């Protein structure tokens, strides 16, 4: 006996209801150890073992039989016997139409009209026709439309679904006038589900109703055997066959119209199925147009490649027709992409995308190379247009300036006459601070020159567009990863030539504007293509002030473009040479302009002397000179010192080093020329008379009225002081600054400057001594013998005579003048003048033929007085002069020596204050009092 604990038990089923042939899943316990253990399965009393699929001991999949109503699901196994069930399944039959396949017997009393001859349907059939195919209820307050109203709206149409002139709109207005759009959408879904259920083919019917079909075949076989056993005449089967054929002919005639519509509907359905299945191709032309309008080019290309792979070789006419339309749209799309690619204003990423699109669309040609060629021509055109525009603007500016100069000629002299002298200070008006000091430069002072604007624009063009051109060229030769792209390596040389052409043209345009002498080897035609810039008197001066800015732009451009590829030295060497030449030209130009500014700085001399303890008395001129040099060095700091990685040092070449040293030497020596010119040929275009104030120390001021230009002797001593301050203070500071900024061989420049300023100092000193000594020496002999004085007849010496006092006051005046400008310079001047005075006095004494006793006393007294007074300025020459003079005077008696001592003491007492000027320690008040006494004498 089978154990009870192995009895099958069904605990679940899904779904719980359905028509015959429904596939259900049965779940439970002990449903068999393997497929062979399952020996029976009944659903609603019908055996369904043949359709059962054993999955596991807890799961079986099967199809239901023709059982109707609710029943149990019973599983039978060898191991557990007949089982039980805790759930049930409800079977029901669908209402099958006359044209639908069915595996069970259908009661046609409700579907086939019994009175077909009369053509009047039964009530049940009419009711069946009136079933709602949408499965929605029409509930609403609006009254239904009448048949007449519907006929007015739909001519030659009908609302019956069985007629050929069926109108869906009529049907909806007639049966679902109050339905919403959402209800209609739900009804459409219902119709689709019903249609999918009716679309099951014969194979599905057979598979789901296999047991019923086998039962029918068995029944037919048994019937055939029975008929053969009961057939007495032997031809009974033939008569039945004839009857069946007649029935078939009658049925064909009866359903011919319906079957024809069914075939037509099937063909339409098949066509719609094909359209639905290949809707990608049929919708592709419209989708291409829409995606192009939206800018979704990747989608267009992907759809085209997909269509090409599927339908390029098709033989179906409709597919060929649609595919030709797709090719037509793609051809227009390809042309549009190529036109966009020809636009040079596209960014680099846009160009790459367009090239990639054209390659994917199998464009005939090489779009990448054509884009490169177009970009090169466009870039060259941009550079050429930039050059032409700025040359034209420069010509207009020159013409306007010439017209302005002609109109201003009437008032320029008046303007110059009313010009006041420059105030004392360190400010200056040069090519660096204000571009120009001339009156007619006023309109140019705050106007950027065209050449500078040209440099800014042309470098902007190169830095903005050339990197994209270079990157596009590099990507052209690195496209191995792209599918179907073959790289033409023979174009490497062409690409290099294209880049070289652009860079060379850019460099030549810049050289034509700033370095035209570097293009002398070009032919005349080539030179004209690069442009000829108009020249004017002020343009060169202005361009020099802006040259550092231009050099900075060129260097930034060269460094930016050189950084694209450090290996392309042969291409970028043109830029590096241009930057180097611009740097050297800037350095030489600014140094030359500084030399001219220094030479012309004499026009700004006001002769206002300012003194301090260290520098003595100097005017503003040395400070102006130092400022000019320092500003020039500062302007050239970026050009000379700041070398970036790929750039050579500016002094790496010996000729440039040599010329720079020579210009620096000329710059340092130019101030000597300026000072010499101020001394001997001062400018005459001074305007109004004013007083010049010379401050001596803290207490003494010397004023000069009427003429603003001092006398020659004062100019000499002022310039001597300036020269000394320049050679001792200014020049060393300038040399230190130049050396710090990288200028080479400054020792040579310092030596040359020292020689030049020493020579200038010697010339000025000799001229000053000549100016001061000649008046003193010229009147010594006259004053010595004034009043009929005779050394041989002089009998009553009463003291030092007036001529010697005049000499003393003249020396004091020279002392005061030199001390007021530069106290350290007093000893040098006074020694030289003292030598001249002593030499002249010794000559006069030596020329005396004979002395009497009184004359001898007088001569010795005056020599002693002069020697004691000038003892601080004693030199070997002075000593020699006094010795020679004393040797010519007869020896005095003791009484005569006493007289000389007494008179000498008297002289010292009466001229005590004057003689204080000749003491080693000198106070400013003493100098001031001595100067006043000198002026009274």
UniProtKB/TrEMBL annotation:
Protein origin, superkingdom: Eukaryota
Domain spans labelled IPT/TIG: 8-79
One GO cellular component term noted in the UniProt record for this chain: exocyst
Transmembrane spans: none
Region described as Disordered: 1-23, 114-136, 402-443
InterPro entries in alphabetical order: EXOC2/Sec5, EXOC2/Sec5_N_dom, Ig-like_fold, Ig_E-set, IPT_dom
Residue ranges with Low complexity bias: 424-438
Presence of keyword Transport: yes
GO biological-process terms attached to the record: exocytosis; Golgi to plasma membrane transport; protein transport
Entry keywords, A to Z: Exocytosis, Protein transport, Transport
Domain Exocyst complex component EXOC2/Sec5 N-terminal intervals: 132-918
Biased composition (Polar residues): 402-423
Summary of the function given for this chain in its UniProt record: Component of the exocyst complex involved in the docking of exocytic vesicles with fusion sites on the plasma membrane.
PANTHER family linked: EXOCYST COMPLEX COMPONENT 2 (PTHR13043:SF1), EXOCYST COMPLEX COMPONENT SEC5 (PTHR13043)
Family classification: Belongs to the SEC5 family.
Subunit structure: Component of the exocyst complex.
Protein name in the entry: Exocyst complex component 2
Organism: Biomphalaria glabrata (Bloodfluke planorb)
